[in-house]
Write a structure and sequence with these properties.
15 helices, mainly alpha, 2 domains, 0% strand
């Protein structure tokens, strides 16, 4: 899933939605202010959508599960120490490393997208783009977390869950017993199937708090309460599930059933989301009518429900498939797991920098998409192998040097 971050962040550069050919709106986007307009691809957009529908919810659930494992194995002090070293320190350190890289890449993209007449060569744009203004606290860009928002929210979740754990200890014995009975009913008893509608309903209702039908990220340093609640549902579920880990056996036994359910849900979600986008475009274009407005609302609610359903069933499917088929140590998978954190941290600036460099190459978006993904993955794996794996950075990210 961390490597899928490359696919997702490269793919965004080739998505026709939500801005189309509107250069001003593209450049005003605080997250991704660049697109290769001439290489738009609806296929790439659908790939990005499918990844986005489940990737971050799954991350958050797994983070909760393994956070609870760490707590149960080593205690609260070791959990705090481990998360500080493995998450908080990298978040701060890599923000200063990534900000100038991020700023350089977006500035290059802006130069390329504004130079529609090709007055300057790519080399001219690159050489003229070097500036002290890309450094932290020297930039005129609004400061934000970049793609590090994920670990920023993880820090908030760990603080919340530890505070919640302390609070629970102050509850009466009867109240604690009641909470335990509720979780056992959801995860362990013969009534465990009510877990599905409870989880789906929780995600549907929290999604309805926001303005989008899908799970969003937030680059702002001030936490977004909707984003926090959206993902905390998954984190908390993973945390509680650790105490009832035998529920994973059900996912393993029904892995292919969940996979087929997920497939049909995702296809339906893609259809509903595209119909919603289409109706929204009609409204924004001024083709207003009661029918369009009603359709817009219908497709929005349908897409929201399908997003809640598909996220959970895709998680059930992938956890089940992993338990079913990845049952023995594998050196290649072990290597990829070791590299994945580094890949997540470092990949994004390369995604849009290489995309901008290929903008003037007259080739289909899918070919560019494949090449940029390959370039970025190669750079991430090479730097991991030679600069990270056997160094203090490897120890910081993975808890050990290889």
């Amino acid at each position: 899933m961390m490597i899928l971050g490359i696919v997702l962040h490269v793919g965004v550069m080739y998505m026709p939605e939500p801005y189309g050919n509107d250069i001003a709106s593209i450049l005003d986007d605080p997250k991704d202010p660049y697109r290769d307009i001439g290489a738009y691809s609806i296929t790439i957009q659908r790939i990005v959508f499918v990844i986005h529908y489940f990737r971050m919810p799954a991350f958050m659930l797994l983070a909760g599960f393994f956070g609870a494992l760490l707590l149960n194995k080593r205690g609260v002090k070791e959990l705090i120490k481990n998360r500080l070293i493995r998450i908080a320190v990298p978040a701060i350190l890599f923000w200063f490393i990534l900000w100038p890289m991020d700023s350089f890449g977006w500035a290059l993209g802006e130069r390329m997208i504004l130079d529609q007449a090709n007055q300057y060569t790519l080399n001219d744009h690159i050489s003229n783009n070097f500036s002290w203004h890309h450094l932290p606290f020297a930039s005129d860009r609004a400061y934000h977390t970049m793609h590090l928002w994920f670990i920023y929210y993880l820090i908030l979740f760990y603080i919340t869950i530890i505070a919640f754990r302390i609070l629970v200890n102050y509850l009466s014995h009867d109240l604690r017993g009641c909470l335990k009975k509720v979780t056992e009913t959801l995860f362990k008893s013969k009534y465990k199937y009510i877990l599905y509608p409870v989880l789906v309903s929780a995600s549907f209702l929290t999604l309805k708090l926001g303005s989008t039908f899908h799970f969003m990220g937030s680059f702002r340093f001030v936490p977004d309460i909707v984003v926090f609640v959206n993902y905390f549902v998954f984190f908390l579920t993973g945390w509680v599930a650790y105490s009832y880990a035998d529920v994973i056996c059900y996912f393993k036994e029904k892995a292919w059933l969940y996979s087929w359910i997920s497939f049909f849900l995702v296809v339906a979600l893609l259809w509903a989301s595209e119909k919603y986008i289409e109706s929204g475009n009609l409204l924004s274009a001024g083709n207003l009518s009661e029918g369009n407005s009603t359709g817009d609302s219908f497709y929005f609610n349908l897409a929201t429900l399908l997003q809640a359903l598909s996220a959970w069933f895709m998680i059930f499917a992938f956890v089940g498939l992993a338990e079913k088929y990845i049952s023995k140590p594998n050196p290649i998978l072990t290597y990829i797991v070791g590299a994945s954190y580094w890949i997540y941290l470092i990949h994004r600036p390369f995604c849009f920098t290489f995309t901008a460099c290929l903008q003037r190459w007259d080739s289909p978006g899918l070919i560019k998409f494949f090449l940029v993904n390959s370039f970025v993955l190669l750079i991430c794996l090479s730097t991991y192998h030679y600069l990270v794996r056997r160094t203090w950075i490897g120890w910081l990210l993975n808890g050990r040097k290889y």
